[in-house]
Amino acid sequence: MGVISRDFVFMLGMTHGVLFIAYLMLSLLVSNKQGWSLFVWLGLFLASIVPLAFLPVEWFLRKEAENTAAVAAPA
């Protein structure tokens, strides 16, 4: 047997799965509250699976937040 036991791998995998499901549920709630389209949520979903895909999504969301703040700021 290796250094890592099966019990440890099971607990780590279960924790990872629960956190992943929680992330998906939270992303659905946030996208609904922000009024984002299904495509934005699909981008969030893909970014949670594909390595380094979070970078373009992060840039997009920062740009979106800056545009929203600029519109909401008094002139």
Automatic annotation (TrEMBL):
Keywords, comma-separated and alphabetical: Cell membrane, Membrane, Transmembrane, Transmembrane helix
InterPro entries per UniProt: DUF3817_TM
Subcellular location: Cell membrane
Gene Ontology annotations for the cellular component aspect, listed alphabetically: plasma membrane
Keyword Transmembrane belongs to the record: yes
Residue ranges of the TM segments: 7-30, 36-55
Recorded coiled-coil stretches: none
Membrane topology: Multi-pass membrane protein
Ranges of residues in domain DUF3817: 8-62
Broad class of where this protein is predominantly found: membrane
Name of the protein: DUF3817 domain-containing protein
Species for this entry: Oleiphilus messinensis
